[in-house]
Amino acid sequence: MSLKLFLSLVFCTLAISPASAADINAIDLGKNAEVWFSEDHTVPIVAISITLPAGAAYDPANKAGLASFTAALIDEGAGNMDSRAFQEALADHAIQLRASVERDDMVISVVTLTENAPLAMHLLQLALTHPRFDAEAVTRVRAQMIQGIQEGLSRPPTVARRAFARAFFNGHPYSRPSDGEVASLSAITVDDLRGFAKNHWVKGGLQIAVAGDITAAAAQKLLGDTFQPVANVTPPPLPAIGRLGSPGVRVLQMPVPQPTILFGLPGIMRADPDFIPGYVANYILGGGGFSSRLTDEVRVKRGLTYGINTSLTSYRKASVMVGSVATRADAVRQTIQVVHDTLADFAANGATQSELDDAKTFLTGSFPLAFASNAGIASQLGTFQRQGLDIGYVARRNALIEAVTLDDVKRVAKRLFDPARLTVVVAGTPVEGKPVAQTSKPAINPAAKPAAPARP
């Protein structure tokens, strides 16, 4: 058998055999922790996804970027190990330890050979309980983050994302840029970093997903030993959101040939029974790549862009349907109008049976690909935990999608895709072009600028 054929057969086996309800079990780690476990001894690798209540929304108003700055230092020394010693310990034992900051949470990913799992988790324990925040590492990481912000502010997609969050979330902590501003990062002190780690790298709200070459008993002991000294406190809840969205079009002038347009609407919360129909509806409208309505109208029929997409994302305190498209400077008004009209038609008429069938086929058929590796399983289970889903969701997920009807899509499309509520941000300078035939035209105010852009 050729290597190519063997790999193809392995891939096919993985693709049709996702983790099932029988494969996923809970591990008891105390009342403040939620642990899901999937055992697989095919390869000697253990992957762990750890979620802590340390997201960007917890940044103080004048210290945007604090959560991300703190997370970026997680592998820069701990205990009696400086940055170099800590990172050499990771590299010498092929341990991957990464931290990323989302709006609500910090997500830590650990991938290690089974034999090195105790060392990997010991290093993580040191990082969480005895971070060093040495001056050299703090100075270096701060400079890297500031450079990243400065570079991003020259790119239309980054400018648009920041501005959209500011406009859409109307002063809520979600409106702040997760990577901060130059001024806010410059103002963060070592005491700020230590205080954030102390108050947010904690067990209250801890969620863990484990997948791979380890037994349930061994995983329970490993995790128990790792997190036993972590502070058993819970940060206060994030504030509720009042109004979502700022209907209209805002333009941030940039001398670029291809402006970026971000457009969005209030979404559907993950616990809402309409979320799955909304997820399917979004796929049909703009989440399905080349098969989506928006791609057909904006790219195929009119040649206004290389690509357009939408996503439906829920956070703990809000949900948003957001889309992105880049186009010529002389086609900005036309592109916005086509998006407006496509949403209006979809809200009024819903989907066709063919569109619904194709969406179900893709969404159910592609689902197993997320479970093709231990790291993928841990990551996917961690995502479900953060969304507040129960441990049996994996087994039910495809059936929920298959149960969506045309009437469901039409009902949710009417609820979700009202173009009159669109918040639109353009990063770039539009010039007049020939508009499409239309009955109404969304007003563009080139002078409207959010006071302080933020990244969603």
How many domains make up the coordinates?
2
CATH hierarchy class name of the largest domain: Alpha Beta
SS summary, helix count: 16
Specify the helix fraction band. 40-55%
Give the full name of the CATH homologous superfamily of the largest domain.
Answer: Metalloenzyme, LuxS/M16 peptidase-like
Walk across the major sheet and give the strand order.
1-2-6-3-5-4
Query: Biggest sheet: strands, sense, closure?
Result: 6 strands, mixed
Order of helices and strands: HEEEHHEEHHHHHEHEEHHEEHHHHHEE
Label the structural class: alpha+beta
Arithmetic mean pLDDT: 91
The poorly predicted ranges are 1-22, 435-456
Beta-strand percentage range: 15-25%
Q: Distance between the terminal alpha carbons, to the nearest Å?
A: 48 Å
**Number of DSSP-assigned strands:** 12
Radius of gyration: 23 Å
The oligomeric state of the chains shown is single chain
